[in-house]
Design a protein that fits this description.
- The chain is mainly alpha-helical.
- Helices cover 55% and strands 4% of the residues.
- A two-stranded antiparallel ribbon has the order 1-2.
- The protein is globular, with a radius of gyration of 24 Å.
């Protein structure tokens, strides 16, 4: 039997501090970490080290490490980090500490990651591979220009109809409406009207953030009513990954009720409606 540490909590205050729900880091990891391999399947965790060992330098891999909230993912990742640091340069990043992941776009995560990699390279007195850096900059420029162009065109639709400064407390409320519309004109007008109605019912002289939130939530609930629950775990995730919709009846129904939107650029592609993405089911 593993011997217990001598400095365990002996008062209510100490026990309260010791039962901190945050992931184990630093001294606390060394002090409180318990190896549960005797009662649980740790093969997946051990497999991470195996995957790293069998790859040659320069080869890339992606490992999805999942589990419900509070099950110990971060603690185990920290444990894996400590095991790997003797052989690898480990770059550890917790995105949810820097940005609300529910509001983040995938481009935000790339920026945070590339920034951390740049910091580490500077610390090591190294530089990015020029071709790799050029490729990333070119890709990000294309994505940013496409996104900004969509947002600006949507803003012009609203500004053509209403005096933004007279109707909104500040420009951010309009931007929230625009970003949630997914480039769909009718949806923008629907949520704008709903926000106006909500503000008026609440006796607000202008549209507040809470009015926009309520309007978007109501539209989101409408999508949940019109979209079969099973699609949230089947078709919709497929569209989110592949950026295309099948031409069968299920796919066409999702296009018809606007759960999935269609875009034209250098090529034709599909994506999940931003309001549907906010649904818990998705």
């Amino acid at each position: 039997m593993t011997s217990l540490p001598a400095n365990r909590a002996k008062t209510l205050k100490e026990a309260y501090q010791a039962c901190d729900v945050n992931p184990l880091t630093g001294e606390n990891r060394a002090r409180y970490y318990v190896d549960l391999s005797a009662v649980g399947n740790t093969e997946a965790i051990e497999g991470v080290s195996t995957d790293l060992d069998i790859h040659e330098p320069g080869e890339f891999d992606t490992i999805l490490f999942t589990g419900h909230r509070g099950c110990g993912k971060t603690t185990e990742l920290k444990h894996i980090q400590s095991q790997c640091e003797n052989e690898y340069r480990v770059i550890y990043r917790e995105f949810d500490w820097e940005q609300d992941v529910n509001e983040a776009e995938y481009t935000d995560l790339y920026l945070l990651l590339i920034n951390k990699v740049a910091d580490d390279l500077t610390e090591l007195r190294l530089k990015f591979d020029p071709k790799l850096l050029e490729s990333f900059e070119s890709w990000f420029k294309d994505v940013t220009e496409e996104t900004e162009g969509t947002v600006q065109s949507s803003l012009s639709l609203s500004q053509q109809r209403v005096d933004v400064s007279a109707m909104f407390v500040d420009r951010h409320q309009l931007l929230d409406l625009v970003k949630a519309r997914g480039g769909h004109v009718r949806q923008l007008m629907q949520v704008s009207r709903s926000a106006c109605r909500t503000a008026s019912s609440r006796k607000h002289s202008k549209i507040l953030a809470e009015d926009v939130t309520y309007a978007l939530k109501q539209q989101q609930l409408e999508f949940e009513k019109s979209t079969p629950e099973s699609e949230y775990s089947t078709k919709l995730p497929e569209v989110g990954i592949d950026k295309e919709i099948t031409k069968d009846e299920r796919g066409q129904n999702l296009l018809f009720n606007l759960s999935v939107l269609k875009y034209n650029g250098n090529s034709r592609w599909n994506y999940v409606n931003p309001l549907v993405k906010q649904s818990y089911a998705f």
